[in-house]
Each structure stands twice: as structure tokens, then as C-alpha cells.
Amino acid sequence: MKKVEAIIKPFKLDDVRESLADIGITGMTVSEVKGFGRQKGHTELYRGAEYMVDFLPKVKIELVIQDELLEQALEVIVDTARTGKIGDGKIFVTDIERVIRIRTGEENEEAV
């Protein structure tokens, strides 16, 4: 099993969620996060004063999926979240050793 963490632009969340549902992935955790990479923030104007916004709002989607769904899920996320502009985000993939469903005690694939 793999854990996929995708950091994307907030307005792309619904499209990504729907695209993942189309391939059978419905369970996910979504968090509102802030950060920056090469984008390095931007300046905004507030009451006539310009100020620097260092951390930009993003959304983090976390999925735990079976290995055979990984490539399809990554392709869907990349294709759906891409705008072609700086700040589209990143995807991180890590191995999952064990999963336990608290309610039933099911483990690994049965728990996902």
C-alpha cells in the first residue's frame, strides 16, 4: 500500500476529488495548509499599504491506496490539478507498513 500526499491549489480540490472518485477512490483526508516553494509568496495591497504574503493557501489531500491503483491515481491528480502556472503543487508517495481500522480491527487492505 502507498500513501499519497498531494499539495494542490484550493480551487482544484473538487475537480481532483471527482476525478479520483471516477476511478474508484473515495476515501481521503483533506486539510487546508499554507506554504511556499519556488513561488515565494506574493505582494498584496491592504488599505493602501503593500505587504508580502509569504505563505500561500493550499490544500493537502492524503490517500492510502493499493499499489495497483497508484499510477492511475497519480496520473489523475496530475492531469486534473495542473494549470501550467507556478504553484500547481507537489505529490509525495510513501510506503505504508500497516493500517488498522479502529472500529472493526480490520488490517491492511481490508481496512482501507
UniProtKB/TrEMBL annotation:
Cited Gene3D superfamilies: 3.30.70.120
The similarity comment for this entry is:
Belongs to the P(II) protein family.
The signal peptide stretch is none
Q: How does it assemble?
A: Homotrimer.
What GO cellular component term, any one, is given?
cytosol
Q: Which organism is it from?
A: Shewanella fidelis
Q: Which UniProt keywords apply?
A: Nucleotide-binding, Phosphoprotein, Transcription, Transcription regulation
- Give the source's domain of life in one word: Bacteria
> From the UniProt record, which GO molecular function terms apply?
ATP binding; enzyme regulator activity
Q: Which GO terms describe its biological process?
A: regulation of nitrogen utilization
This chain belongs to which protein, by name? P-II family nitrogen regulator
Q: Which residues carry this modification: O-UMP-tyrosine?
A: 51
Which PANTHER family does the entry link to? NITROGEN REGULATORY PROTEIN P-II (PTHR30115), NITROGEN REGULATORY PROTEIN P-II HOMOLOG (PTHR30115:SF11)
Tell me if ATP-binding is a UniProt keyword of this record. Answer: no
